[in-house]
Design a protein that fits this description.
By secondary structure, the protein is of the alpha+beta class. It is built from eight helices and four strands. The protein binds glutathione. The site of glutathione has 14 residues, from α2.
Length: 212
């Protein structure tokens, strides 16, 4: 059995869980709730992943792998069923990879914002971080609105998965952003994404944090 270090709070983990559902691999993994905290990394986790980040996949009979995009590749290589997450056609593949990186980049922006907002004392917070993150979110969302038809025209792949999860994460942690305002094309595209069984089965949740 493969063991996935997991949390219902993590958007990177959610990317992987959506992929596992899409590729019909649910029966081949067991999830283990693992603490992930950039300020207090669980020391005993270093032996499995020296970065102590989730998602990390301990493969049955093979070395552990980490990083959500890498685990998406594992899912695609492990199963022929479901959508092809990393298309073979070169141009389509580049589009999928670029969209995948955009969604992941939005998550990284969100993480930077959460760290500044919740992990730094109020008198040490830097207003520039808030400004830059807001500007990046705005630019990414406007780009996606302008590209909503292009997204909808392509078969579902890792790019859609990553962007779709990033938008779900904005709803989960940054509702005040109201990202749908003035972006009807993107909102309609995301309604279709959110209705996928893989997305409905993997909702975010603030569960009690495990102790180290
Ligand atoms: N590039 C990684 C990022 C993973 C990541 O940052 N996960 C967070 C949880 S949402 C984490 O493990 N944070 C703990 C840390 O940074 O030490 C991926 O795509 O999987």
């Amino acid at each position: 059995m493969n063991i996935l270090h997991w949390s219902p709070r993590s958007p990177y983990v959610r990317k992987v869980m959506v992929a596992i559902h899409e590729k019909g691999l649910l029966d081949s993994i067991e999830t283990v709730r693992t603490l992930a905290d950039p300020m207090f990394p669980p020391r005993d986790f270093f032996a499995t992943n020296p970065l102590a980040k989730i998602p990390t996949l301990e493969r049955d009979g093979a070395s552990p792998i980490w990083d959500s995009r890498v685990i998406l590749e594992w899912a695609d290589l492990s199963s022929e069923s479901g959508p092809r997450l990393f298309p073979v056609d070169p141009e389509t593949r580049l589009q999928a990879l670029t969209d995948e990186a955009l969604g992941t980049g939005m998550l990284e922006t969100g993480m930077a914002l959460l760290i500044e907002r919740h992990m730094r004392a109020a008198d040490r917070q830097d207003a520039r971080v808030f400004d830059v993150c807001a500007a990046k979110f705005g630019a990414c969302l406007d780009y996606l609105e302008a590209n909503a038809a292009r997204l909808a025209a392509r078969d579902f792949d890792a790019g859609h998965l990553s962007i779709g999860v990033a938008l779900c994460y904005l709803d989960f942690r940054f509702g005040d952003l109201q990202w749908r305002e003035g972006r009807p094309g993107l909102a309609a595209w995301h309604d279709g994404f959110a209705a996928r069984p893989s997305v409905l089965a993997t909702t975010f949740r603030d569960d009690p944090r495990p102790t180290e």
